Amino acid sequence: MKKRMRIGLAIVCAIPILSPLLFMNGNDYLIQAVTRIFIYGLLVLSVEMSWGQTGIFTLGQAAFFGVGGYFAAYLATNENVTDIGLLLIIAIAAGIMSGTLVALFLFSGKRVGELYVALVTLVISFVCEKLANSWTFVGSGNGIPGVPFATLFGKEISSPIAFYFVAFGIFAAALIVCIVIIDSQFGLAINAVRDDEERAEFFGYNRSAIQIVIFIFSATLASMGGALFALSEGFISPSSLGLALSTSTVLWVVLGGRGTFFGPLLALALLESVDIEMRSILPSLWQILVGLMLLATMIFLPKGLASLGEKSRNKRELRKRS
Amino acid sequence: MKNIIRGHTSLMVSGIAVGVLALASSLLVAPSQAATAKGSPIKVGVLTDMTGAFAIVGKSNQAVAQFTIDEINKSGGVLGHKLVMDLADGGSDPAIATQAASRLVNQDHVAMVVGGVASFTRVAVRGVIAGRGNTTYIWPASYEGNECTKNVWNTGSAPNQQVDPTVKYLLSQGKKSFFLAGSDYLYPRNILARVRQDVLAGGGSIVGEEYVPLDMTDASNLTSKVLASKADALFEVVVLPGTAPFIKGVVDGGFKGTIAGTLFDEGINPLIGSQAQGLIGVQDYYAPITDPFSRAEVAKFNKEQPKAAGLFASTFNAPAWYRSFYLWKAAVEKAGSFDTAKVNKAMDSVSLTKSIGGPVGFAPGTKHLKLSMYLGQSNGDGSETVLKSLGQIEPYQCANASN
User: Fold this and answer.
1) B363 CB near a chain A CB, below 8 Å?
2) Cβ contact (<8 Å) for B19 and A18?
3) A 129-188 residues with CB below 8 A of B?
4) Cβ–Cβ under 8 Å, residues B235 and B211
5) Which is more confident, A71 or A8?
6) How far apart are CA B20 and CA A144, in angstroms?
7) What span, in angstroms and rounded, lies between the C-alpha atoms of A276 and B88?
8) Contacts of B383 (CB under 8 A, 6+ apart)
């Protein structure tokens, strides 16, 4: 078994082993907070797959997150579709459709620059937020509140613990699928496209097909995350489509270390769990601290938190040699 | 690609590290205790936007909450319990606000929550607080109306309480043709719908109705439409940041009619500048109202909360925040208990003989307040002149809501 797979499995196994910590506390708020980390984890995986692994610099991934969220929230609230399996399938379909539209536009022709992709995705996220804000069909500025509890085989998932396991299961499955893809032969081709699009084409890889497939895949991950968000939080609003969430996700990936799964997920868990505490302690200063932390990471750890382990290992090896 | 972690030991360690971090918050927070012991402090949730677009309102809200809670504690607390403010930042974003609300309700087990600045926050958090959390939620803002959810209580003004007297005054001044302008979202649309209804019922006519994007800053297009309409009166609910450029444009463009709206007072006027001269509106509080209790309290507020001095304004919901705590206190004392169901039952008919802005009380079955309202006219220096004290006005909301 490859090492990356083992890391993934270690992450996946460690969480349920440690979960009793949560239950002992009996604190619904913490359970929801960790559930939210899994949900944003799907978004992080989606940016990591497209940007970290394939080199598609998407700055608007929240647009797909929001699309999934709006579909799930609308259907659950207005059409009484609450079965979580069905809603996820719908979210996947919505992700595939919206992802395909954008992917074909961006990658079906000649090679485009990284900056171009970033700008187009950024604008898409911006436009989606504006649209949701003024479209009364989806509740305009208020979004869709009062989303009912999701159901599984006809039973309501009303307790936060139950939803925690649902979100965890989906997150774990998504993580394993991502790792399997990256460890496959196709994964090598994906990384080749990231490292040098032109050379990959010279070697005969279909650069455009690879980019389209991965972009759609990552849009689908984001869309599933959005659907889970709407069901878990009980609402969806324009800010879930917008720039703030899009850029936060990129921030988590940058901070954690682009090109790894472990680093960005670590950064997400770290920032989110500290964030909810700091927000009540230092509400206005905290945002500035996050900015400084990001700056410091860029300067001192350009490869992100994930490179910390590598650095200390290199030091140890140097010491051994000398 | 190089693997980041080599070897089994570091591999397991790193896996566990992610898990630990995901759970880190549980270690950061001490388990909360429900306050049931006699005389133990009671936590009350204060949810406002300390960061983001509404931070200025949050600053005022926090100060008013602190001021009111201190005052209640000095006079003996509620049922012998001191109140403790549990502040949560909504971040001007509903996703952050629901998380904050969940902390208040599910972790800190607050006795009730006052808060929210924008309606999108209210609709997002009411499920967490009043619905799934079964906790009393007080929404202290002038808003678009129709909030009749169980366990939710509205302490700001409903559209009719501001609009009806304003339109009545304009019609009495001989203004017949109205131009309506607002930002394109729920609040302005509902307010202007009420204006339209009142104007037509009073024999006036609507010569134009325009909605502009929320973040409009270039108002020239809208301004020229208003000027071309030659209306006798302009009723505007264009929110910040568009308010100032729009009103300046209309006034400097030589508009002959009267400008009225729901968002003019000492909080907003300074942003408009000298062109605020003559703006008409109705609020539940203006600084120059003659009520001695209000004057003394606001003077005390400015002294005790120097960082927020001058931020006690109706458009920042300050009077509504103040009375929210006292109304809740009255309901708890009437119920003799902090139990949500009992407090909600009592809340339906509580009233205050003294409050900042004058006497208020819930109109039974409406979940809204009978509010003392004032007709005001803005001066060019940002201050207000009270033209008339309108007495208590009924809210037309939530027919026969049970709790």
Assistant:
1) no
2) yes
3) 133-134, 140-143, 145-146, 160
4) no
5) A71
6) 34
7) 10
8) B266, B269, B287, B288
- Contact of A52 with chain B, judged by CB distance below 8 Å, is answered with no
Do the Cβ atoms of B94 and A235 come within 8 Å? Answer: yes
Lowest mean pLDDT among A138-142, A232-236, B275-279, B306-310: A138-142
Residue A316 has pLDDT above 80, yes or no: no
Considering only CB atoms, B18 lies closest to which of A269, A280, A309, namely A269
Q: Range with the lowest mean pLDDT among A156-160, B31-35, B158-162, B281-285? A: B31-35
Query: Quick one: pLDDT at residue A244?
Result: 87
pLDDT of residue B5: 37
Q: Is the pTM of this model over 0.90?
A: no
Picking from B3, B19, B123, the nearest residue to A15 by CB comes out as: B19
- Encoded tokens for A63: 């647009």
- Closest chain A residue by Cα to residue B45: A280
Residues B219-260 have pLDDT tens digits of: 899 999 999 999 999 999 998 888 999 999 999 999 999 999
How, if at all, do strands B152-154 and B136-139 pair?
Answer: parallel
Cα–Cα dist B238/B254, whole Å: 19
Q: Which residue of B has its CA nearest to A194?
A: B1
SS (H, E, C) A34-67: HHHHHHHHHHHHHHHHHHHHCCCCCCCCHHHHHH
For B29, phi then psi, to 5°, come to: -110, 130
B129 has a chain A CB within 8 A of its CB: no
Q: What is the pLDDT of residue B374?
A: 95
